[in-house]
Amino acid sequence: MTGLPLIALVGNPNAGKSALFNALTGARQKLGNYPGVTVERKAGRFSLSDGRPIELVDLPGTYSLNPASPDEQVTRDVILGKQAGERLPDALVVVVDASNLDNHLRFALELIALGLPTIVALNMVDLATRDGLELDANILSRELGVPVISTVAVRKRGLDHLRSELESMLDGGAGRVRPTGEQPDFEGLRKEARRIARAAVVRETPSRRMTAAVDRVLLHPVAGFLILLALLFVMFQAVFSWAAAPADLLEGWVTALGETITATLPPGVVHDFLLQGVIGGVGAVVVFLPQILILFFFILMLEATGYMARAAFLMDALMARVGLSGRAFIPLLSSFACAVPGIMATRTISDPKDRLTTILIAPLMTCSARLPVYGLIIAAFIPARSVGPGIGLQGLVLFLLYVSGIVGAMIAAWALRLTVTKGQSGGFLMEMPKYQWPRPQDIAIGLWQRAVIFLKRAGTIILLTNIILWVLASFPQAPAGVRQSEYSIAGRIAGGIHLLVEPIGFNRDISLALLPSMAAREVAVSAIATVYAIDAGDDEDALNRTLGERLQGRWSLATALAFLAWFVFAPQCISTIAVTRRETNGWKWPMFMMGYLFVLAYAAAGITYWAAVAAGLG
Amino acid sequence: MRLTDLPLRQPAYVDLIDWNALSASDGQRLREFGLCEGASVEALHHGGLLGRGPIACKVGRMTVAMRRSHAAAITVRTGPQEEDA
């Protein structure tokens, strides 16, 4: 916690708060959590024109101070000075959408009445103008009794004005309305907001509304649905095809780093440890950074353009069949990137049983941590040939793996809804934001944050698991003629696991990788890479072969396919289990989740293996 | 007529909302979306491949999506809008 003046950004969802936050703070942002709740705390710094630093916190968007979900609760508590881990803000910047004043002013009035120094940012005035709406900020300011500044956050317009107004406000100037002590009633606020909104409109001409026109296509019952499917398909194809070049580049760097170590360090334990445990393991995971960023790029774009709410609308009827709401589609789609933010995003679902069901099936969405595993196996075992115009076989297999996860999740949701989360389903009520072009900087900031999180994971949890694995797999030293990966401690533990998984076609390599990859799925790749590096020892030929080539020599196609099927379902991620425990307040649901997912994984891998062997692929 | 029966893209306004047919939290959310007696509404899209999905409608200057069960609680009237709402 700092002693800087704290300013909170508040407003309705879709008022452009986050864009304003990014425009003011740039890359100087810090993501954290409020203690006790999993709501993300997004804070950053910026300077006033006289250079004074200010801390800015971006609060979750909400429609009123009457919270309907956990994240709206945080907004309310921060503003009232009741939130643990946050001091009472010194001032509020209330962000309102210029083209939706009737609605947003009602909340603004509620906030102004609290008596904190307040500035209203009349945001997205350009879009209002596009819709034929001309507003007078001075009239608004007079009626509201606080400064009103026109902004276009995405074009950085009005920011200097906002800064100088904040400056005079913090110096004890305007912006404070004496609290009346009365709790304003909803109906009164609504009428007042409507009166002020009408007073502020200088001119209103009906004009072509881009959003309505686009929605006619994108929300069309048939065309809209096909477009959604096509978008998802393109997304998954891109993950493979766009990432190839940057992944090769990274791979080259990792190899070069390994060669440098070989050239500079004398042979011995340190050399082996760095080469096999660190470079071999972590390097094998880091090369998947491009694919993960491409996936996040699509998800960030879908969110920033306003399309995500349309996807939820299109999916609601389908989701309702398995007892979920269309709203669950958003956390589930985020879970394709990572189940942790996906599970955290379920807090926007107000119905507790809807929310629990969504949490329990979120790990079935193919997260980006599976990509290294899928990527490695597909590249090694599925030929890179075309099966149609623009459709590669590898991309198609990847798409099928994603589909398996989705179908599995839908069946699981249906079954859960009939049993453990039985009960009336909640509704689906959602605002459809206007479409807009995302600002490249906003997307870049989002990608940067995700890249940092991924590399931190690689540098901490994955590295640590790999070091432990390397030690266990390197000692005791195997006598000549015996494979090190079987003789070592890790090899003996794997031998035990092997008994369990042999029926579903898993070999000893996989058995060895399963336990460490409980920490994180990518570890399966780094673990296999480390073990092969240890087994190869100083054998130049073996070292020069890629991991994929080595797999081809040791695994049958049936085993590879069973391994893929296992990873569609297996709950191998400590972070997901931890966030589930936090979100459900106990161990009951994370334990249940692990249990049912392992059963599914075992069955899926088994069926895949036996079917493949029967088809002559064993 | 009910909002579920309102033809697409025909401007109307809310005549009556049966708040008792809605849960307290759904009712509150609808109010926050600006739905109240007298508000202007226009049905824009029916979701779902078989037309049993949610309804997207314009309420004032906002587009909101709701399930048919919510829309069924809202009675609308077409014609010129009352000014005092």
Describe the fold and architecture.
The complex is a heterodimer of chains A (618) and B (85). With 618 residues, chain A is of the alpha/beta class. Among the domains of chain A are: 199 residues, P-loop containing nucleotide triphosphate hydrolases (Rossmann fold), CATH 3.40.50.300; 217 residues, no CATH class. Chain A is built from 28 helices and 12 strands. In chain A, strands 2-3-4-1-5-6-8 form a 7-stranded mixed sheet, sandwiched between helices. A two-stranded antiparallel ribbon of chain A has the order 7-9. In chain A, strand 3 and strand 4 form a beta hairpin. In chain A, helix 12 runs antiparallel to helix 19 and helix 17 runs antiparallel to helix 26. A 5-stranded antiparallel sheet of chain B has the order 4-3-2-1-5. The mean pLDDT of chain B is 86. The longest helix of chain B is centred in the N-terminal third of the chain and has 9 residues. Chain B has 85 residues and is an alpha+beta fold. In chain B, a hairpin with a 2-residue loop joins strand 3 and strand 4. Chain B is globular. In chain B, 15% of the residues lie in helices and 33% in strands.
Summarize the structure.
Chain A: It is a multi-pass membrane protein. Chain A is an alpha/beta fold and 618 residues long.
Map the helices and strands.
The complex is a heterodimer of chains A (618) and B (85).
Chain A: E1 6-11, H1 17-25, E2 29-33, E3 40-47, E4 53-58, H2 70-79, E5 91-97, H3 101-112, E6 118-123, H4 125-130, E7 133-135, H5 137-144, E8 148-151, H6 159-170, H7 186-200, E9 201-204, H8 210-218, H9 223-241, H10 244-264, H11 269-286, H12 289-305, H13 307-321, H14 329-334, H15 339-345, H16 352-361, H17 370-381, E10 386-388, E11 391-392, H18 393-418, E12 429-432, H19 440-474, H20 484-487, H21 489-501, H22 508-514, H23 523-536, H24 540-544, H25 547-554, H26 557-569, H27 574-584, H28 588-614
Parallel strand pairs in A: 1-4, 1-5, 5-6, 6-8
Antiparallel strand pairs in A: 2-3, 3-4, 7-9, 10-11
Chain B: E1 12-17, H1 24-32, E2 40-46, E3 55-59, E4 62-66, H2 68-71, E5 74-78
Antiparallel strand pairs in B: 1-2, 1-5, 2-3, 3-4
Subcellular location (chain A): Cell inner membrane
Pfam families (chain A): FeoB_C, FeoB_N, Gate
Domain FeoB-type G (chain A): 4-172
